[in-house]
Specification:
The protein is α+β, with helices and mostly antiparallel strands. It has helices spanning about 5-10, 20-35, 40-45, 55-65, 70-80, 155-160, and strands at about 90-100, 110, 120-135, 140-155. Helix 2 (about 20-35) packs across helix 3.
Length: about 180
């Protein structure tokens, strides 16, 4: 897949974002692919210091963006369905713990870490639940799981509480009830 066809695919996601957000999205996506699908810091490093915006604006893209994750997920589903192998749609679900440290990390909690070195190990961080569709990517000639929907798991007790300023918590990411 050449760069022009990559851009044609990405442009189909433009209606999900505002113009500035779409520019950030395409920059982050290209950097993420160049960095070997690693963390955002690696994405910025892959740009080799040629960031068109200050690096904090890319963090704000995720924390304060006006786009909706479900709208992006629906657009991704429509985009990847033609690449489903043999007409089958294979969906996989994963929950991954992203370890965090610090006093004021919103949404972090203590979770059981099944990959810990100690049985029944606990760790502090975010527990992301991800639904991915398995597709065949012509460029790598193998199947790849593309994340299309994701939620941050938060226990019921973690969702009920006060913010640092004493107000009731309003953010309910990961709730179904």
């Amino acid at each position: 897949m050449e760069l022009d066809s990559f851009h044609m695919i990405v442009v189909s996601l433009a209606p999900v974002f505002s113009q500035p957000s779409f520019q950030s999205f395409t920059f982050l996506l290209e950097g993420w692919l160049l960095a070997g699908m690693r963390a955002m810091t690696s994405t910025a490093l892959a740009a080799q210091g040629n960031l068109p915006k200050h690096f904090t604006s890319y963090y704000r893209f995720f924390s304060q963006g006006a786009w909706r994750t479900d709208t992006l997920g629906s657009a991704l589903v429509r985009l990847v369905l033609p690449f489903a192998p043999d007409g089958q749609i294979v969906a996989v679900v994963d929950d991954t713990i992203a370890r965090k440290s610090g006093k004021h990390i919103w949404g972090a909690n203590v979770h059981h870490d099944p990959l810990g070195f100690v049985p029944n190990a606990l760790c502090f961080g975010h527990n992301w639940v991800v639904l991915a569709l398995v597709i065949r990517v012509p460029l790598v000639q193998r199947e790849v799981a593309v994340p299309v929907f994701w939620r941050l798991y938060r226990s019921r007790n973690a969702r009920k509480g006060k913010t640092r300023r004493g107000k009731d918590e309003r953010k309910t990411i990961g709730t179904t009830s």
